[in-house]
């Protein structure tokens, strides 16, 4: 029994506390490193953008909702990835007001860990879902695949996103961000010739992220895609 407990503990991913200079001072963020990482081979990277409720400066709240708990619940499934989890400072505006922070933590992580640059993935929920759509459209050549959850974007960006593998998620009872926001983006991408897909959860409200990160095997879906 003791050996089993020790093995379970060894399988736990490590959420490492980090800081980066942004906006005139240090900003805290976290990097989730799987237990098996030893730096011997390049690892895929996921950038996760949290929702509005996780804004702040404590450096840990952003890992308490969404992908963080999903990784802890299924460390084996998410083991192929190093996951970067920045925390947006409180204040008006969304993630794109902090574009330098998002791109900065990715670049810093690429220097500190061995990262497979052909396998950079982007995902986020609610406010982070919006951020995922917009950041993907602004830098479509950066990402191998994108998974926006209960967010929305600018349908005019459909042509910019048409060549990206995109899987969006939304609950049809979401009153915080209407399902139509995701539908508009998928329709725009398909109209531009893309093949993005949308999973709609019947009877689910704003929290569609627990199902997306825990039940859909996104950890397997991402790995199908790499930039050429």
Can you offer a commentary on this structure?
- This protein has 228 residues and is of the alpha/beta class.
- It is built from eight helices and eight strands, in the order H-E-E-E-H-E-H-E-H-E-H-E-H-E-H-H.
- The strands form two sheets. Strands 1-2-4-3-5-6 form a six-stranded mixed beta sheet.
- The protein is globular.
List the keywords.
globular, six-stranded mixed β-sheet, two-stranded parallel sheet, disordered N terminus, alpha/beta, 8 strands, 228 residues
List the helices and strands and how they pair.
Layout: H1 2-10, E1 14-22, E2 25-33, E3 43-49, H2 67-73, E4 82-86, H3 99-112, E5 115-125, H4 127-138, E6 145-149, H5 158-161, E7 167-171, H6 179-191, E8 197-201, H7 209-215, H8 218-223
Parallel strand pairs: 3-4, 3-5, 5-6, 7-8
Antiparallel strand pairs: 1-2, 2-4
How would you sum up the major sheet?
6 strands, mixed
Helical stretch count?
8
Oligomer: single chain
- Average of the residue pLDDT scores: 94
Determine the structural class based on helices, strands and strand pairing: alpha/beta
Give the CA-based shape. globular
Proportion of residues in extended strands: 15-25%
N-to-C CA distance: 46 Å
Helix content: 25-40%
The H-and-E topology, N to C, reads as HEEEHEHEHEHEHEHH
Integer-rounded radius of gyration: 17 Å
Q: Name the strands of the widest sheet in spatial order.
A: 1-2-4-3-5-6
**Low-pLDDT residue spans:** 1-9
**Secondary structure: number of strands:** 8
Write a brief structural summary.
Helices cover 32% and strands 25% of the residues. The chain is α/β, with parallel strands linked by helices and 228 residues long.
